[in-house]
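Narrative summary of target 7.
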Amino acid sequence: MKQITIALAAIMALAASPAQAFLSSQDETTLLATLNQENLTQGVHYNDIRCSVRNKKCLVKMEIKSEKAGCLIEHMNDVSDLYTESTTRDNQVRMVLSPYAEQALASCVAGLL
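Modeled conformation, tokenized:
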């Protein structure tokens, strides 16, 4: 419970900070769709992702078994620290979390389960 309280306090601080984002709303939508399509963890649904250049963090909001939660991915200098982008055969843009971001998010989610 203490970890969740600390995590929520950090999330609220990041969400309240007026800072320039380095992820466009279109990129957020595409990345969230990919996260939810490739999600192998039962009961986890990703709802929102916000990144701050000033704070060098990304906040990933989600629902875990119908409980709201969030995870911070820290030390993000630019989008390459968060994801890589490729084009599929049918010219669809596909975003994949970077190994660093994937590990940080998986570790956080595992701690919340």
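The longest helix spans residues 2-16.
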